[in-house]
Structure prediction request, 843 residues.
Amino acid sequence: MRSRSVVRTGTRPKYINAFWAGSNIILLSRDEGGELVREIAPVEHASFIRKAAFDKHPELRSVIESSRYITGWREEGEFIRIQWTLREKAIAAAEKDGWFAQHGIDVFEADVDPVRRYITDNRIEIARPLRCYLDLETDDRLPFSQLTQMTILCWAVVSEDGTRKMTGVLSEESTEGERTLLKGLFEELRRYDQVCAWNGDRFDFKVIAARLAAVGLAVEMRRWLWTDHLPVFERFNMNSAESGEEKQSMSLGSVAAAVLGPDEKKLVKLGEVGGKRTYAMWKAGGEERDNLVVYCLDDADKERRIEDKTGCLETLFAVAQATHTFPDTRGADPVKFVEGYLLWMGAERGMHFPTWHPPPPSEEREKYRGAWVMEPTRTGILRDVHVADFARLYPSIIITWNMSLETMGEPWSLEKRQPTYLAHLPSGTNEVPVGYCAAPNITVDEILTVYDSVLFRNEPEGILPAMCIEFIRMRSYWDDEKKKHPPGSPLWVDANRRAAAFKICVNSVYGVAGSIWSRFFNKQLAESVTQAGVWLIQKTIEAGETRRIRTIYGDTDSTFSMGVGETEFAEFVKWCNADLYPRILKERGCTRNAISLAYEKAFDFLVMLGKKRYAGKYLHYKGKRADASSKPEIKGLEFKRGDVARLARQMQSDVINLLLAGKHEPQFYEDVVMAYRKRVLEGQLELADVKLAKGLSKSLREYIPKIKKDGEASALPPHVIVAKELAKRGRDVGQGIRIEYYVRDASTDPPIYAAAEDWKGDVDRYHVWENQVYPATLRVLATAFPRHDWAKFERARPKKDGGTASGTLFTKAALAVPVGARDKRVVVAAKKPGGSTGQGSLF
Prediction:
């Protein structure tokens, strides 16, 4: 690796990585020969105040110049840049109770870290890193809670093109042996810039850092972009998942099976290694040790092949390059990459933004109104349903009303308020002030619906609208580039991913403006965006009613309508764009119009269950007629969810596909229900058929039973009960981890749950049918055929007196399928005061 001082040229510098080390910023790049180049630049801890503050507070200059924590200051346009000795001092001075706040002086960007500051000030571009995939196998005799003490038994590193696959294995169980193993690992990693590992942030990267310290090996870990592939996959791929199978488990084996095919879950010849016998395999030596290395290498290569199929890491790089953010795990966070681009744009405009302060506790946070979802006026099997969709609704609203922090004016009311005793008279209307546009903000007073507003200046163009426009322009550019190349070719794939990256960027702008974790959060701004969306969709519905168009459902940015044919609906959409929106936007004072409604699709059959819950067979989609190969659109149903059992998804999917194919005889579905019921109660069941999975939304210690009105403690959720038992075993049960379990016996009080790793086939089949499998399909059938009695199939568990349950369609003998004997060794019941049994770890 070569080192050099930073030398500025006329071109923007490109770097693969940068990190803050003491008083320096270390910048990394690669020369034309591929050699790593290290450059050094001085650190600057900066904050900004308005120059006008000097005029308002004459003593301010002397206070700054005499402070021992401030090394200097200089004027930059309308701002004063203050340079601090330490970042902590800059942040402390900017606190809400700090010196500047006490004197009514706003402080900007004091929390921006030195690397982001340097990237912004010096217009740094992001170069493509050399990527590899890493996997470790560690000593499984220690629980996850002691991962920092786990000896690394072997490692595998695979290049992004798969042509280089290297492994290392521990030669002897000693400090020197592990030191040698780690030296070999980092000798290999020197070839790369970005290290990707599945669940790396929670495991692999922590283990490596801990073991380096344990064996006394000094490595500058920040020299690499450590990227956890799992959250990147979740963020950039999960919306495209076609079923809940890809969402149920985020383990590498499960994701590989969902993305690459069911045969990819495990190497057959290795069996279920799964981290449960790694030490034994290593200790055995010979073929067993070789198998452990092969297993490790296979996992690293699975990552590579998942990326080849999904392109999530490439999308992350395209987003990073577009927003001047490095493509590590943090770079996948929309707050990070959108803020990075906004700071960049702000520097070009001579603007600075508020210092970010940690938000207050959740119960004290400001709430604001979000999107409007209309309750469906019709449910069941519907025909010829037309869907109109606003293109990029929130970015278009931001552009149309020029919504940005620096363009926001005072609250305004278009209605002349009247005392309640005159509410029966027509209300007058105020004019929108010249030079402003008014964003509708629908509220309801005691009697009247009132349209309150926040005013936004029409000029100059705000930074949020400018960013949306640029992202839309770049997406359009790469969409056009994609058309120039054969589908699937390298240039087509590159253009497609860049177009997808800019789509992600533009759709993330509002989310960041509405996030309490962003410096750009503002309640009035965020609510103005959402309520403008509500206003637009309601105006569209009202206009449709005058043309015999009945809107049966509305959801955020789309309407579902009936009553007219395709031609009439297409004409209505055209009229909205040409007449309705320009007219009503002009009334609001808007001088821009980015609002566009599209006739997105029509459904031949639509099974509507409720808000955000439907399944439809296309008549056409974006101008193309559907054919026999067209997949249905399914929203919000269990089939798409990862927290339900596989059999529930399969049964519901079968019924939905039959309904959309035109099979509308209730008796036919009775046969389907009976077949599934018999399978659940009498057939062979696998763990995957009945397994449930749910993520921990907070740390385990934050789950505390609530006290009910009768003084009893309420039961904890099943996945939390299981997680607490897994924690005792040393498993990873941190926030965000999906807990997999099944119901061993629901006939007891409280029920008995078991971790998926304890599977012995001892599942409560009655509970599986009554509570897990049938309800998802029951809701579909009851909605599709409301006059038919579908509840008669619901009950399966025999009555306690030995009789059959109401509606049971099997004999007592058929129902006497063994639920599974409880394993008394793992049944634990917590004792209530006084010796009674209460809620506990039910194993």
Observations:
- The chain has four domains: 1-41, 131-323, 380-621, 639-838.
- The radius of gyration is 31 Å.
